[in-house]
Amino acid sequence: MGERTRLWAFSHVLDGAHVGRDCNICDHVYVEGGAQIGDRVIVKNHVMVWEGVTIEDDAFIGPGVIFTNDRYPRSRGLVEVSNHYRRRENWLGSTTIRYGASIGAGAIILAGLTIGRYACVGAGAVVTHDVADHHVVVGNPARVAGWACVCGVPLNDRYCCPRCERRYCLRDDILVLVE
Predict the structure, then answer these.
(1) Whole-number average pLDDT of the chain
(2) Of the N and C termini of the chain, which has fewer Cβ atoms inside 10 Å?
(3) Which domain range does residue 91 map to?
């Protein structure tokens, strides 16, 4: 646990997990050993962060978000798959939430995906594919619904932010801040 990180009631951070500095880990959060949480991350109530999940600095994880770490889970006691579960690399999916991304309340993030920098996942979305930087995704399955500013507000059709007035342009389908 990093300096100045707050861990609220009924939350559990297991041995082998890393939680950075200045984080806020709210009530009833479960962080499994092997999970990595960067600096200044907010993890709201009732979130489960499993081994194999990396959350980079300055991300926001809304209430009730569920991460997964096994793309095709089975009971480890099932004879037909017992060999599969003997080695971690056979089943453990690495999921990465990049710098500044926001995951809305109740979203489900499947194993082995990357949510890009400043991306926004809408509340209740079920994310089944990678999400590119600055993309806004919504629905089940999650689909692209627009672009997000670094401040989190969706951009208008001219790639301008109505809140902070930053302007962007598209270059090779990549959102670029205009200086």
Answers:
(1) 96
(2) C
(3) 6-148
